[in-house]
Amino acid sequence: MELYLQFGYGMMEHSRHLIRNWGTGHVILSPRDLTREQMQRLGQEIIDVGGNILVDPQLYDPNSNHHRLRDHEYWPSNFNIDMLTGGPGLSELIRSLENLNTDSHATKFIIPGIYATRVDDDWLAIQDSIISESKAIVKDMPLLATVCLSSESIRFEEQIETIVNAAENWDVSGLYIVPEHPRTSYLVDDPMWLSNLMLLCSGIKLQRKTVIIGYANHQMLCLSAAKVDAISAGTWLNVRSFSTAKFQETDEEDISRRAKWYYSPSVLSEFKIPFLDIANSRGLLDSLKPDSSMESNYASILFSGAQPTTTSYSEQQSHRHYLQCLHQQCISSVKLSFDETVNANIEILNHAENLISELHRRGVRGQDRDFFNIIDVNRAALISLNEARGFILKRIW
After folding, report:
1. Residues 252-276: tens digit of each pLDDT
2. Whole-prediction pTM value?
C-alpha cells in the first residue's frame, strides 16, 4: 500500500521535498488550494523529481461558493443538477477538466463525482452519466471514478453492496473513494463505519480495480487488509478527514491556531509537546521515539536530551515527520498473505494498547488524537472483514 500526498493549504514545498526524498510517489492536486498556473508549475516540478500527479476535481458540492474553486474554468457557473445527466454542459465540464489534467501533467484522470447523502437510484444515475461521458472524451489516461459517501450512507451495508454491484459495470480502472468521517471527527470511533468501508474496498479489489482512499490518516492503515492500493493524507486535519465544509468559503487560513503535534507510530497516537515533557520526566520518552525503519529524522530534536518544549521543533518538522512515518507504515503494511497482513495489523494494535495503557497510567495522553479508544474499532473491523471476505481474499492475495 502506498501513501499519496493529499494536497492542502501550504503544501507546495512539503510535496516537493518529500517526493524528492522518496524518489517516487503521487501528489493529488487540489483546485481549491491552487490556481491553474500553480497546478501546471507544481505538476511539472513533481514529475521532475520522480513523482506522479493526479487532480481531485472536488465537485462534491457543485454549488460550492469557494472562490478559488469557482475561479477554475471547469467549474460550472450556473449549476443545475440536470447538467450531470448528460448534454453539452457535462461534455464541456469533462473537456475542460481533461485540459486541466493534461496541463498539470496528471497520469490518471479522476472523474468528478458528487457527494452521496445516500446511495440511491438518482445518485447512481448521475455516476453512470459522468463516467460514460468521461469514457467517451478522455482517451489518453486511465480513469478513476470518484465515490464520495456521507458518513451515514457508509453505515448501511446494503448501500455499500449497491456500490460494489454498480461498480462492476463502470468501465474504469479504479475508484477514488472519499469517505466522510462521522461528526467531522478525525479518528473514527464507529466500528460499523470502518467495517463497511473495508467491505467496500475489498469488494472493489475483488473486481481487480485500483482503490485509492482520499482524505485519510493513520487509522486507515488497517485498509491494507482489504488490499487497498493507496491512502492519501496531508498536513492539516482537513486533508486527513473529509468534510464538505472544506469546500465552502471560510477563513481556513486561521487553521486551528495552532498547536504542534508529534506522531508516535508505535502507539498510533499524536501528542502535544508539553505531554512529551511529562513522558521525559517519567523516563518514558524513548518509548515514543520512532523506530529506525521510519527513516524520519524530522523529530530527532525532541529526543536529544533537552526538555521537548525547550527545543526548536517546528510545525514544518511536525508535518514532515507525520507524513514520512505514514509513508513507511504504508509500505510495510501489506504482507505476503491475507492472514499475515491481518495478524500484523492486530499485533500493531496490541502493542499500541499495552504501551498506551502504561503511558496513561503515568499521565501521558494524546487527548483527542489518542488512539486508545480507537483500537477496538480497528480490531472489530479487521474481524468483520475476515468473516465477510477472508476466504476469497486469501485465495486471490
Report:
1. 544 545 789 999 999 999 999 999 9
2. 0.97
